[in-house]
Amino acid sequence: MPEELSTTIKEMIDKEKVWKAVLEALRLAVSPGTYGTYLKQTELADVREKDGRLLCEVGCASSFAKNTLEQRYWGQITEELERVTGNKCEIILIVKSRKADEQDSISGPLFESKEVIKGGWKKANLRETFTFDNYAVAGSNQMAFAASQAVARKPGEAYNPLFIYGGVGVGKTHLMQAIGHEVLNNDRGSVLFCSGEEFTNDLVEAIRFKSTDKIRLRYRKVKLLMIDDVQFIAGKPTVQEEFFHTFNAIQKEGGQIVMTSDRPPAEISKLEERLRSRFGAGLIVDIGPADFELRTAILLIKSRQRKIDLPMEAAQVIANKIEGVRELEGFLVRLISEAEMKQQEITKEWVEEVLEIAKPGNGRAKIITSTEVFSVVGNYYRLGIQQLKGERRTKMIAWPRQILMYLLRYELKLPLTEVGRMVGDRDHTTVMHGSNKVKLGMETDQRIKTEVEDIKKKLFT
Amino acid sequence: MKAIILQENLSKSLGLVGRVVSSRGQMPVLGNVLIEATKVGLVLSATNLEMGLRVEAGGKVTEEGGITVPAKNLAEYAGSLESGNVELTGEGEKLKVKGGKSEATFAGIAATEFPVIPRLNEKTAKSDRYKISRKIVLEIAQQVAFAAAGDESRPVLTGIKLMKTETGLTAVATDGFRLSRKRIDKAGLGGGGIGEAGLILPARTILELARLASESKGGEIIMEKAEENNQVIFGCDGIQLVSRILEGNFPDVEKIIPVEKKTSLTADRENLLRAVRSASIFARDNSNIIRFKMDASGFKITASAQQTGESEIELEAEKEGEDVEIAFNYRYVIDFLGSTDIERVRLVLNGNLAPGVWSWEGDESLIHLIMPVRV
């Protein structure tokens, strides 16, 4: 395909050159009036070969020009064409207004403003509320936020591509769409947001209906292309190839690409090497899980969006208890509907009350037996139950044992002596020490926290 | 060539073709009128390469032939002659004009230098021709054409788009700041005139056609398309008008016509026009901006400029919906109000950033959009 392209380009240059030479020669032969009125606006529209002769289609601005040229300058044009190309030529005159072809779609404020006001963001697939204004910033996402703002200010210049990764519900999509909104608001060009999956579907559809050209036009002419969850295209060779070309086409035109994923490019398996290297060519930033302050801020922003007054203390209580950002929003919705139903003012105490009721609703309604805790912890660390109950105190076994104690004590709310009895008849002080160590570890070390959360997830789901 | 024609007929015909004579000095022959003496009488033609006009002037031809002479001079001279017979004689590249006791010789250019203007195909069966009534042409020219763009930077917007509808046709013109859309029922579609894709004709063509239609005596206007040349030929009472068809993508207007209706206002057209004219005195020095203010206290039009001063006019109007304050370019408002003689007009607004939708009270056929000015 690249070869094909280069030959057409060559032809184009040739056509223009040839016609310029012809016109320059004719200019000397006819009066300036004739040249300006009839010849100046002509162009060589097409050249084909036929029976050893060149068939040249000459486009004229109007039929008047065409008729005049046909009757009076036919011979002269043919002669000059033959001289320049060195071939026998035959000319066909057609009416072709050049201006009409070159017209862009911009038609004045009546048409433009309508689009901006009424749905630039809709057309780009953006969500209305996902803007920078509604994005809360804290330590975990500060870097990503700064990078996004830089990209939004100078799309295609600052960091290209921008690759944002992080776990679920940390705000990757929000941040990316905020870039889109900003670019649209500043009228920097067209914007398109889609998920990796949508891109795949579009392409499959296009291949099915033989309309890949349309798809190319749609994705390649934008100034800012945003692909959400780009890891979904991994393992799909054709999609990756198309994306590769799209990527190159946009970058060549000075467009910006922003992607999100749940992991860095280096860790996306089955991703083609050429894409992997391109993903890393700009800036890769991660967003960590929201910390307490950020969660509080998010709650306050979300409640403001919903036009309700959430007191600071209440927000803190919620942020303390609920960790996922999506869950926060879910709880907020529930809180609002309940407040409306009961005509209740939202106070810290009432929120605590609702939180208590909400707890079993958190997906933790399952009643867990101690045996299950044993088997889950054992499975997680690849240890037998007897090993956990046994006497050995190497770190390999002792640490899982302490986690086990922690879970039994705090999650199943068993008394210390009972826990001790279950875990190989140990003293209650051993249990106290072990579980406290885990608890402290969770508060200070993010890794330990993730580890325990992981086990808890396995336990409760 | 040799012919005799009545002075009134010569003068009138020259006046008609004179409109399309090219003003560009580049090609002298385009500033000329082509005079052809044929069996059916004298035929006068002129063209500016965008449009071409051919008028049958009548008269008695004794020797066939043709010549071109400067249109303006000949028209002026013919107008100065006393009524009666005028004798035209071609001698080489000169034309001798003799009327009463005056005689003049015009230096001209050979007829072969003149561009060929296509003519109606006489063989086309009458039923295959697209007919359009004079009334409709006049309506489109008066109510729609003024909204087309005047400058050539976006050529397609200098045109009027005609589209076929189930019951008749729709004509639209816009320059990007305002838009007129007229729906005409029972336009009498015959033959394949407009075609499925619609037809974009230069607004100047429609205006010229309307002028010809209003000056000629009755009869329908027939239309024929010359696809290969991208031209359209209109015929009307011995006159043929040739125009190019505009190419390009005409913007999709249907999607920008608002459907919401936050504020609606109905007022007497003449009073409104008078008020806008008077406010315009103060708007001229301030980017032509006049403001419409609608609230509980009524409907006011204001305008102000630092150097000039300010004016406020209160008007009687029926208002429905929200209060609003919006700014328009007064020229656009005057253009619309002056395009009709309907008694009352309606203005529908959706906030001060969305276009104002003007229409006639009790008549849905015309919609005129004007983009507000942001202030």
Helix share, percent of chain A: 55-70%
The portion of residues forming beta strands of chain A comes to 5-15%
- Uncertain ranges of chain B: none
CATH architectural group of the largest domain in chain B: Roll
> Distance between termini of chain A?
52 Å
Spatially, the strands of the biggest sheet of chain B line up as: 10-6-2-3-4-18-17-16-11
Gross geometry of chain A:
elongated
Kindly provide the radius of gyration of chain B, computed on alpha-carbon positions and rounded to a whole number of angstroms: 25 Å
Main sheet strand line-up of chain A:
5-6-7-4-8
Oligomer: heterodimer
Rg of chain A, rounded, reads 34 Å
Count of individual beta strands of chain B: 27
CATH top level class name of the largest domain in chain A: Alpha Beta
Major sheet of chain A: 5 strands, parallel
Question: Beta-strand level of the residues of chain B, as a percent range?
Answer: 35-45%
**Mean of residue pLDDT values of chain B:** 89
Shape label of chain B:
elongated
Query: Which series of helices and strands of chain A comes N to C?
Result: HHEEHEHHHEHEHHEHEHEHHHHHHHHHH
Number of helices of chain B: 6
Structure description:
The complex is a heterodimer of chains A (461) and B (375). Chain A has 461 residues and is an alpha/beta fold. Chain A contains 21 helices and eight strands. Chain B has 375 residues and is α+β, with helices and mostly antiparallel strands. Chain B has helices at 7-18, 71-80, 134-143, 203-215, 269-283, 330-337, and strands at 2-6, 32-38, 41-47, 51-58, 60-63, 65-70, 85-91, 94-99, 102-107, 109-110, 130-132, 159-164, 168-174, 178-185, 199-202, 221-226, 231-236, 239-244, 263-268, 289-295, 298-305, 309-315, 317-321, 324-329, 344-349, 356-360, 363-370. Chain B is elongated and about 80 Å long. At the A-B interface, helix 2, helix 3, helix 4 and helix 5 of A face loops of B.
